[in-house]
Amino acid sequence: MFNKQNSDVMDPESVQNASQKTSTKANEIRPTGNQLSLDDHEIIVSKTDLTGKIKYVNDTFIRISGYSEVEMMGVQHNVVRHPDMPRAIFHLLWERLGRGKHVFVYLINLSKNGDHYWVMAHICPSFDAAGSVVGYHSSRRKPDMKIVNDTIIPLYKQLSDIETAETSKKAGLEKSADAFDKIFRAEGVKYNEFILSL
Ligand SMILES: Cc1cc2nc3c(=O)[nH]c(=O)nc-3n(C[C@H](O)[C@H](O)[C@H](O)COP(=O)(O)O)c2cc1C
To answer: Whose CA is nearest to atom 28 of ligand 1?
Structure first.
C-alpha cells in the first residue's frame, strides 16, 4: 500500500509512531470553549523534524498558542492538539507526509489556556539540496468559518463518533479513515482537491 518514493522518507507508520513517543500537556488542558481568531493577514508558521518535534515557531504562533518559544522548542506538535480533532485526519496527514506529499487540512487547535482557534493549514515536507526530506513545515491561515461551521465541524464530529463507538482504538481509526475516504471518493476527487473544493 505504501509506495516509497524516496529512501529518506520515513514510512507513515514509523512517522506516526515517532510522533506519539513524547506525551504532551495538551491532553491535560481542558477546553474553555472560547474561540480565538486570526486576523486576515496573519499566518501561523511552524517547522518540525521528521518525527513532528517543533524546531521553529513564528511570533503569530507564539501569540495565539500562549506558549513561549522556549516552551515549544523540541516538543511534539500535538502540544496544540484539540480533543475534537478526529484521529483519522492526523492519520491521513502523516500518511501523505510519509510519501513526500503536501496536505491541506482544517485544524482546530488548543491554546495553552484552553481557548481554541480554527486554521486552514498547508503542511509540506522540507527538502535538503539533495532532495531528501529533512522535516516538515506548516503555514496556517484564518479559514472561511462558514466552511468550518457548515461542513468541517459536522464532518469531524461524524468521524470522531465512529472512532469513539469502537472499543478498540485501532478499529475506530480504521472505520473512520475508511468512512472519510468514501466521502471524498464519492465526489470523484482526491483528498487535497476535496478540501480545496469546499
Ligand atoms: C509541520 C507539522 C505541523 C502540524 N501542525 C499541527 C497543528 O497545528 N495541530 C495539531 O493538532 N497537529 C499538528 N500536527 C500533527 C501532530 O504532529 C500530531 O500528529 C497530531 O497533533 C495528533 O497527535 P496525537 O496522534 O498524539 O493525538 C502537525 C504536524 C506537522 C509535521
So the answer is: 77
Q: How far is CA 157 from CA 64, 89, 160, 162, 172, in A?
A: 24, 12, 5, 9, 13
- Which of 77, 111, 133, 170 is the best mutation target for the ligand 1 pocket, counting ligand atoms within 8 Å of the beta carbon and taking the most? 77
pTM: 0.87
77-115 residue pLDDT tens: 999 999 999 999 999 999 999 999 999 999 999 999 999
- Cβ distance 147 to 20 under 8 Å? no
Domain 12-143, second-level architecture: 2-Layer Sandwich (3.30)
What's the gap in Å between 10 CA and the centre of ligand 1?
16
> Domain ranges in the chain?
12-143
